[in-house]
DNA sequence: GACGAATTGGACAAGAGTGTCCAAAAGTCA
DNA sequence: TGACTTTTGGACACTCTTGTCCAATTCGTC
């Protein structure tokens, strides 16, 4: 009773994610989702309920996924770097690849931006579980680097925001376009170099 | 024959802009636009044609407006700065206030992001007239500053992208939320300070 | 094979939206 | 005033979507 249920349910949620992301809330039709999931429309109503419940489920799913990935990446922050430039670049690559460029994360941002005003509750979920939640964690890591003397900054929160902005600055951000590993690496290197020119020892930046 | 036409036409485009921005392409109904414009639905069909033509018209309008504003702001770039820090901050404030935070520009970005895939032609218009078109102009200004010895950089294009990213990094970017002048100024100052720490003489950054 | 639960597909009502048609009303200009 | 154009509002056909109902079928399990 659980097994079959569960498989269908996953297929539905997965298909719904794709369709909502592609067409937005209003543009997505239950029929399209049913077809994408290779499931009859009725099954969707049996399993989940109405369109809104389905949407909430989709957003929560992406949210949890993204949050988990972000936490995993944060765990790889170079707390005691030997070569701070290289290690920050590698961290930046992981961050952009797994958490920023990732198709679902971008989709989530888009969905939130578009439907957030219609479903304020989603906004709350996003604030609690979404990427924003973990920025303080990044700030704390930078603050620790500063205390250890690896970098020189006064406002870790600001530095964290700027770090994110810099490693994003050079990413091609056309919607739905794939970003190659080489582009990713180049963007990370450019961002980190400028970050270190501003906050690091000059040698570290020049070494990049 | 032109007079009455023209007024109605403007009212329609203006109302359509508001509704498309608020509800997206699919969510916007002709009836809602007609009501917002205080015009009968039939008049819209008489004046413009179908929904798609209306949408194209709206996007082109916002595009032209935004592009004009950006060019105007670019003309105020501090080419021969006395106090580079202060003048860059003031430039950054104008840029964010008039071109980035502006309600219509944000809306345009959103519309392009959502409907761009459906109307590739809009994407082209946006590339030709949109903000991206004028980035080379910013790069050129930074290159000139570098030649004059005011700042120290090797890749003006990259510097321009990072400048934009840095002055954006600290802007509150909740959709539809108003940004106060104080927040704007603070964000600009933070961004420019880091930019100058990386690319300028250290004194200029510290003076901020 | 047989039972019970889940799934399917088709039909259905209700609602909303688009685009067209048309006759009546309002506005414009000489 | 009179001729001409534009606007209006209502009616209409058509399509699409949502959500419900139901009988037939399939699936899992014993």
How would you portray this structure in words?
Two copies of one chain form a homodimer. The first copy, chain A, is an all-alpha fold and about 210 residues long. Chain A folds into two domains: about 1-50, Arc Repressor Mutant, subunit A, CATH 1.10.10.60; about 55-205, Tetracycline Repressor, domain 2 (Orthogonal Bundle). In chain A, about 75% of the residues lie in helices and about 0% in strands. The first copy, chain A, has helices spanning about 1-25, 30-35, 40-45, 50-75, 85-100, 105-115, 120-130, 135-145, 155-170, 180-200, 200-205. In chain A, helix 8 (about 135-145) crosses helix 9 (about 155-170). Chain A is elongated, with a radius of gyration of 20 Å. Chain A binds a DNA duplex (30 and 30 nucleotides) through helix 1 and helix 3.
């Amino acid at each position: 009773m659980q097994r079959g249920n569960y498989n269908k349910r996953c297929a539905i949620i997965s298909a719904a994610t794709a369709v909502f992301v592609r067409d937005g809330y209003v543009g997505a039709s239950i029929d399209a989702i049913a077809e994408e999931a290779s499931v009859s429309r009725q099954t969707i109503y049996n399993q989940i309920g109405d369109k809104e419940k389905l949407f909430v489920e989709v957003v929560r799913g992406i949210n949890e996924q993204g949050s988990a990935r972000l936490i995993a990446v944060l765990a790889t922050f170079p707390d005691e770097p030997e070569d701070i430039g290289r290690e920050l670049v590698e961290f930046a690559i992981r961050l952009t690849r797994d958490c920023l460029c990732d198709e679902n994360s971008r989709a989530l941002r888009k969905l939130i931006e578009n439907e957030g005003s219609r479903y304020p509750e989603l906004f709350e979920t996003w604030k609690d579980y979404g990427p924003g939640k973990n920025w303080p964690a990044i700030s704390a890591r930078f603050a620790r680097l500063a205390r250890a003397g690896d970098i020189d900054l006064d406002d870790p929160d600001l530095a964290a925001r700027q770090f994110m902005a810099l490693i994003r600055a050079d990413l091609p951000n056309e919607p739905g376009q794939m970003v190659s590993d080489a582009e990713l690496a180049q963007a990370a290197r450019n961002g980190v170099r400028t970050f270190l020119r501003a906050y690091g020892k000059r040698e570290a930046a020049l070494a990049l």
